[in-house]
């Protein structure tokens, strides 16, 4: 979307503030992402997120199966749940 907003200035002479308003994004958001358009190096947050995403399936495979009851499905002395 930042690339699209930037292109509006060069192709149609529409100011980025007008494009941001029309697209429903803030100008700080635009400036944040404008410099990342051609940047192939992921930022630290994205690298950490990718590492965590890769670890999640391994955590589930290594953990023993635990059986949990849904609230309201267990009965105790004739009463349901809490």
Q: Low-confidence segments, ≥5 residues, pLDDT <50? A: none
Order of strands across the widest beta sheet? 1-2
Backbone structural class: mainly alpha
Judging from the principal axes of the Cα atoms, what is the shape?
A: elongated
Radius of gyration: 24 Å
Descriptive account of the structure:
56% of the residues lie in helices and 5% in strands. It has 82 residues and is mainly alpha-helical. The chain has a domain at 2-49. Strand 1 and strand 2 (79-80) form a beta hairpin.
Show the helix and strand layout.
Elements (H helix, E strand, L loop, with lengths): L1 H11 L3 H8 L3 H8 L9 H19 L12 E2 L2 E2 L2
Antiparallel strand pairs: 1-2
Helix pairs in contact: 1-2, 1-3
Which properties best describe this structure?
82 residues, mainly alpha, two-stranded antiparallel ribbon, 4 helices, 56% helix
Give a brief outline of the structure.
By secondary structure, the chain is mainly alpha-helical. It is built from 4 helices and 2 strands.
């Amino acid at each position: 979307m930042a690339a699209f907003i930037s292109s509006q200035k060069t192709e149609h002479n529409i100011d980025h503030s007008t494009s941001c308003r029309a697209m429903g994004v803030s100008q700080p958001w635009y400036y944040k992402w404008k410099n990342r358009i051609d940047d192939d190096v992921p930022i630290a947050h994205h690298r950490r997120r990718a590492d965590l995403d890769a670890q999640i399936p391994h955590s589930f495979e290594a953990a023993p199966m635990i059986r949990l009851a849904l609230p309201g499905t267990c009965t105790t002395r004739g009463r349901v749940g809490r």
